[in-house]
């Protein structure tokens, strides 16, 4: 069974969720999570993001918060001093008031995160204890998923949720920085948060990021965009389209979040755009990373919807005068129709040869041929093709010359009989008789007796 997941968006591709066993006694070891994170260097700061790999400990993370220490590693890979606390207080979810009034903001990510963190739970009534526990666990998992998702596409939402921090200083491109993210330790909530470490390299400031591999696939009224999953470190995407390769507009108003099929081996992410057939469209792709940045892929690609419906068939007929045959049909008037080929075959569905080297135009409705002197029989059909190569066939018509001349009598008939009474007959065949289908042997006890079929 396939399972679709948004885990990569929720925990920034650091890890996947754990499944934690439950029993009658609850301890910190029963509910344990690893803090996972990533960082990015800028000219004036290092941005940090983190999360947990177990939804059951997520509430503890955002409510109790974390402390952050930094260790600087010099160009010789030696520590400069010891760990330095870079926050004055725990980093945790901001109060509801900090998110703003829902009627005064258009920031969807902030409002969704606020609802997940502070929205009132509404559990079904008149259910047994086990059902209530199941519903509560599903709610916890959904809150973790949705909060992580929207924090991964909005820097402000991440800060408000207590899942992000900006270390304000000027990073040195010759140094490395290690961050230690950990729970304060004065635990009031069940569960244990294991310390997470984030490693940031200063020289990454010199790297010019390039994102390549955007391609298109064409089908009926659909252009499918695909790009490599492994080299796309993004939480979501904006797709832009243009008809002139200059003026681009967003196809999706809201950020696009590809479904990840964890049971499939596909190496690509996909987006399907509904379009008119035979109109060229140019596409650009912009990814939104965990730090709220929008990055443009280097590729601009073209695609268009193409008709995959074969041409409407026509009815083929013919008139024959001795060896002159005239084929007739009513022209196909479809807009994307390209023309005809007349094909000949020994069988009703065969196309052993094409009689016209140049395609018949769309308005042609007749064609004449002269049968060769040795013509016996053949099937004829029209092959119809459109501008993108879809094909169909007309009905088949059968033309033959009635054969009223019997084959020549076989010659060289000889017979042998062995001691057991077995008789073996041999004769010469006629290679010049293509219509010959076989022989029937007749037998009589004497030459002047009546012969009967053997």
Protein described:
This protein has 454 residues and is mainly β. It has 4 domains: 4-206, no CATH class; 215-303, Immunoglobulin-like (Sandwich), CATH 2.60.40; 317-400, Immunoglobulins (Immunoglobulin-like); 411-453, no CATH class. The protein has helices at 7-10, 58-64, 108-118, 129-151, 155-160; strands at residues 4-5, 32-41, 45-52, 67-73, 84-85, 164-168, 176-182, 192-194, 196-201, 215-219, 222-228, 236-242, 249-250, 260-261, 268-274, 281-288, 294-296, 301-303, 317-321, 324-328, 337-345, 353-354, 366-370, 377-386, 391-393, 397-400, 411-417, 423-428, 442-443, 452-453. The longest helix is centred in the first third of the chain and has 23 residues, at 129-151. The two termini are 66 Å apart. Residues 1-26 have low confidence and may be disordered.
The global form is elongated
Bin the strand percentage: 25-35%
Q: In the residues, how many domains can be counted?
A: 4
Span between N and C termini?
66 Å
Our Rg estimate from Cα atoms comes to 39 Å
Q: Biggest sheet, in brief? A: 5 strands, antiparallel
Q: What is the count of β-strands?
A: 30
Query: Taking all residues together, what is the mean pLDDT?
Result: 88
**Number of contiguous helices:** 5
Q: Which runs of at least 5 residues are low in confidence (pLDDT < 50)?
A: 1-26
Helix content: 10-25%
The computed structural class is mainly beta
Keywords:
single chain; 454 residues; mainly beta; Immunoglobulin-like; 4 domains; five-stranded antiparallel β-sheet; 5 helices; 30 strands; elongated
